[in-house]
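Good morning C.,

I know you're traveling, so I'll keep this short. The sequence:
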Amino acid sequence: MPKIRISSVIDAPVEKVWARIRDFNGLPGWHPRMVESEIEDGKKATDIGAVRKFKLASGPTVRERLDAFSDDDFLTTYAIIEHPAPITNHTATLKLESITDGDRTYAVWTSEFDAPAEKADEMAKGMGENVFQGGFNALKSHFSPKT
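The tokens, ready to paste straight into the viewer:
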């Protein structure tokens, strides 16, 4: 079972970063790899069990279920329930913490899942670099001072 842990420091207060990412249906608004997201069955984006269906910029569609959400803890946990790659038993958590030295944000995105042994490392690397670090890079760019 691959385990991924990607962390980053974002030069903005945790409340501002959380406001940007907290919407479970809002990936296209901040992550460059995601487009055309919708919540299925008329649920709210904060309802535990809500399923978002979104399209990747590269074309495929992914469905994910919200398993935990906390405004107080700046945390969201979700599971991939449909993906073009052979991923099963997936869970991921995105958590933000306040860095008081400089009023910055420490962000950690973790995941684990099952995949065929011959593809597991490659899939974990792609998820960590493209999805998680790619998202953090987009957030850092968004919050960087404009010159």
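Safe travels,
E.
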